[in-house]
Prior knowledge:
Layout: H1 2-10, E1 14-18, H2 21-24, H3 38-41, H4 44-47, H5 50-55, H6 57-72, H7 78-89, E2 94-98, H8 104-107, E3 114-115, E4 118-125, E5 153-157, H9 166-178, E6 181-185, H10 196-199, E7 204-209, E8 221-224, H11 227-234
Parallel strand pairs: 1-2, 1-6, 2-3, 6-7, 7-8
Antiparallel strand pairs: 4-5
Helix pairs in contact: 7-11
Amino acid sequence: MEQVHGWVRAARRIAVLTGAGMSAESGVPTFRDAQTGLWSKFDPMQLATEEAFRANPQMVWGWYAFRREMIAKVDPNAGHRALAAFAQRHPGRTTLITQNVDGLHQRAGATHALALHGNIFEDKWLDTPKACCNKEAAAAGSPPYCDQCGNMLRPDVVWFGEPLPLRTLAAAQEAAQACDLMLVVGTSGVVYPAAGLARMAAGKVVIVNTEPTELDEAADAVLRGTAAQLLPQLLED
Length: 237
Ligand code: APR
């Protein structure tokens, strides 16, 4: 811990990559934790693909509505707050890259988070919108739709098999290649290209996680503990 704290102090450019474990202490379930993870209860191929949405839009929309409601009830934790505060104290020194769609980093005050997998509170049209497709005037429904052409709104998140937003991914890769330290917090490191950022990091890689991850072998240090407990200590000036 002391050694890593020294690395944080000495680092000019810090990239931070976060995953669902970052929000676990806020009360947002992770995806792959054996008992509590969403994917231990729900089939991701039935809920987080475009095919699944086209096959059963009502069920998928309902599931995202349930997650939106749950996330809206929780608050950022001490880990989110420590990252946002560090970035405010040290402008230009950190790049925050998140796989999370919950918006908790942003609610904690992070102003330039690179959200690789989108934002669960945003919607977009399923098919390329026509002149008639107006989000504000979408007909009510689960999901809301265009009453002219039937186009449907879907959550603006990255589903399995979909590409990441290009500019966001490019900015994240640039930050990884320019960093002298990368903190990898609360991710199992099994989903690419996000996990690949830790493998392309130019600087030292530090894992913060309660469990072993796929990325541990690529790390310079592994800190076994929670995001809300360890980040405030690590980011203390
Ligand atoms: N603090 C730190 N780490 C934690 C905590 C905590 N309080 N609680 C759980 N973890 C760790 C788990 O041990 C696990 O390694 O967080 C990790 C969560 O892993 P996943 O559930 O696989 O989530 P993530 O890595 O973000 O998933 C990547 O997969 O399902 C898709 O698009 C979704 O963005 C997501 C992507």
